Amino acid sequence: MPRYQYGCQDCGESFEKELRMSQSGETQICPACGSDQTRKRIGAVAVTSGGPARQSAPPPRSPFT
Predict the structure, then answer these.
(1) DSSP class per residue in 21-41
(2) How many domains does the chain have?
(3) What CATH number is attached to the domain comprising 7?
(4) Domain range holding 28?
(5) Is pLDDT at 64 greater than 60 in this prediction?
(6) pLDDT tens digit string along 31-42?
(7) I need a surface site. Which of 17, 26, 37, 59 has the fewest CB within 10 A?
């Protein structure tokens, strides 16, 4: 699930929330002061799978080489 960065306009606190993409535009409550005057910040979105990292397998070898 993606993680989004938010900033509180009342107290200046920055915080992150792990939300579904459909929830990212909803008003988020500041964990520091409880205000609903928050805005999503522009930045990189971190996406995690929740599972272990997988290594890609090498390409199969051709029988003709």
Answers:
(1) GGGTTS----TTT--S-EEEP
(2) 1
(3) 2.20.28
(4) 2-46
(5) yes
(6) 999 999 999 988
(7) 59
